[in-house]
């Protein structure tokens, strides 16, 4: 089934045509690891996790390569370390661990590749050297700057006039800039700031060059899909696009650019640390909201639409989740099933998760529990172990114990073999028989 995705660059749904269907490449801008993720940060992680699962379903599990970076050098990290006294390496490694744990609780699988900015510095330096050599970047006062007017395509992604872009980005006016729109690729570090040796002295990279260099290093010159939140369209992705095209003689960085809308709190306010209206993923889990319920709530709106995060949304999502769980308890065999075509079709239409939810409701109504279970698996929901199944196994174990007590070994062996065939191993111990899944 062809997958159509809304492309921010063309402002329309484009059919995904991977350059190599045996190696579909996707890169999503990952977290800057200075503080624990809030539920707004989880939205892109979950949305692109669903897309990755859809791509695997379509192209095969081994034919999708998903990279999500870790930005582990950034002025916010330096500031966090300065204000708390915690060393930078400790902040970044614990925040990354939290991120993986929190996203894991929401059913987000780790990416295939997780490039770290601090281990990709040589690739960044090489790309900057290329940009300088090709006349798209210049060196001034220990900085390397991208020469925005040198790239005619600048602004194509965000479609804003240059003066508006400059105002919107609150671009720093600095004496070393040739044009106010020029942006920093490399900047000098003082002795108390982290830094790396470079042809331009000891310094550290700007944010944008990281992704361009890591994409090229991890996935190649042109990737199939590039994603992130809408706030990344400008300046981050506009700048990534410009750097990569200029470094690669005009070859595009990505075929399809995708951006998720914001998760809002209390009206139209984007959840963000700077507004102070954040809810940590860990806090929500600690309040007793199941990870699958949070995932369902995050997927309740179409990814490009704003999502209002409310208690009512959580309660609704929990009710739906509990209903599905009860349904699937009644049909164990369905767990192995494939996703229903109606759900695949909804996702293939620009990840239309509300339509997928409606299709799930129809499967539920029609009693197609196998289709429901297979579709939930495609959406990345993990079915908790069915209580009914566990109770059935307990009953069989008890029957075997009774058979053994009656010295009916033919019967007790038969039950053991039957359970073994279903992937259940029995362990006889002094306290009785326990079982586990293989
Ligand atoms: P950051 O760690 O701030 O760079 O953000 C990580 C990712 O989360 C980026 O893709 C952002 O666009 C995204 N993001 C941040 N806040 C929100 C929000 N309230 N709703 C949706 N996405 C967000
Ligand atoms: Zn990026």
Spell out the key features of this protein.
438 residues; 15% strand; alpha/beta; single chain; binds zinc ion; 4-stranded antiparallel β-sheet; binds adenosine monophosphate; elongated
How would you portray this structure in words?
- It is a single chain.
- This protein is elongated.
- The mean pLDDT is 93.
- 44% of the residues lie in helices and 15% in strands.
- Helix 9 crosses helix 10 and helix 11 (341-348) packs antiparallel against helix 12 (353-366).
- The two termini are 35 Å apart.
- By secondary structure, the protein is an alpha/beta fold.
- The strands form five sheets. It has a four-stranded parallel beta sheet, covered by helices on one side. Strands 5-6-7-8 form a four-stranded antiparallel beta sheet. Strands 1-2 form a two-stranded antiparallel sheet.
- 41% of the residues are buried.
- It has helices spanning 39-59, 75-84, 88-105, 121-133, 162-168, 207-218, 233-247, 281-286, 291-298, 311-329, 341-348, 353-366, 369-378, 387-405, 409-421; strands at 4-7, 12-15, 24-28, 64-68, 137-140, 143-146, 183-188, 203-205, 223-229, 254-260, 263-264, 307-308, 424-429, 432-437.
- Zinc ion binds at residues 29, 211, 236, 240.
């Amino acid at each position: 089934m062809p997958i159509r995705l809304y492309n921010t660059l063309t402002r329309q749904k484009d059919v995904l045509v991977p350059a190599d269907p045996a190696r579909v490449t996707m890169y999503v801008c990952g977290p800057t690891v200075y503080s624990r993720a809030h539920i707004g940060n989880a939205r892109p992680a979950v949305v692109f996790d669903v897309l990755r699962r859809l791509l695997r379903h379509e192209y095969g599990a081994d034919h999708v390569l998903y990279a999500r970076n870790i930005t582990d050098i950034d002025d916010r990290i330096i500031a966090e370390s300065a204000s708390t006294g915690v060393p930078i390496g400790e902040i970044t490694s614990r925040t990354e661990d939290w991120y993986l744990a929190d996203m894991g609780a929401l059913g987000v699988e780790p990416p295939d590749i997780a490039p770290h900015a601090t281990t990709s510095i040589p690739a960044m330096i090489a790309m900057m050297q290329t940009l300088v050599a090709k006349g798209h970047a210049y060196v001034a006062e220990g900085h390397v700057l991208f020469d925005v007017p040198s790239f005619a395509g600048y602004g194509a992604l965000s479609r804003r006039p240059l003066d508006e872009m400059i105002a919107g980005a609150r671009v720093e006016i600095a004496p070393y800039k040739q044009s106010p729109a020029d942006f920093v690729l490399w900047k000098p570090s003082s002795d108390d700031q982290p830094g790396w040796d470079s042809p331009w002295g000891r310094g550290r990279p700007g944010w944008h060059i990281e992704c361009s260099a890591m994409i090229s290093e991890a996935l190649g010159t042109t990737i199939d899909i590039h994603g992130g939140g809408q706030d990344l369209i400008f300046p981050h992705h506009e700048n990534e696009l410009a750097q990569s095209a200029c470094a690669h003689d005009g070859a595009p960085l990505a075929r399809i650019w995708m951006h998720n809308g914001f998760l809002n709190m209390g009206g139209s306010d984007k959840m963000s640390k700077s507004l102070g209206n954040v809810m940590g993923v860990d806090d929500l889990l600690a309040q007793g909201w199941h990870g699958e319920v949070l995932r369902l709530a995050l997927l309740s709106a179409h990814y490009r639409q704003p999502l209002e995060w409310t208690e009512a949304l959580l309660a609704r999502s929990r009710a739906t989740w509990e209903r599905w769980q009860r349904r699937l308890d009644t049909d164990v065999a369905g767990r192995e099933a494939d996703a229903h075509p109606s759900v695949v079709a909804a996702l293939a239409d620009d990840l239309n998760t509300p339509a997928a939810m409606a299709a799930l409701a129809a499967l539920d109504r029609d009693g197609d529990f196998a289709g429901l279970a297979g579709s939930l698996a495609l959406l990345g929901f993990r079915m908790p172990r069915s209580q009914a199944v566990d109770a059935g196994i307990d009953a069989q174990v008890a029957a075997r114990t009774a058979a053994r007590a009656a010295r009916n070994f033919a019967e007790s062996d038969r039950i053991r073999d039957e359970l073994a065939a279903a992937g259940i191993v029995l362990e006889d111990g002094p306290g009785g028989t326990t079982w586990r899944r293989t």
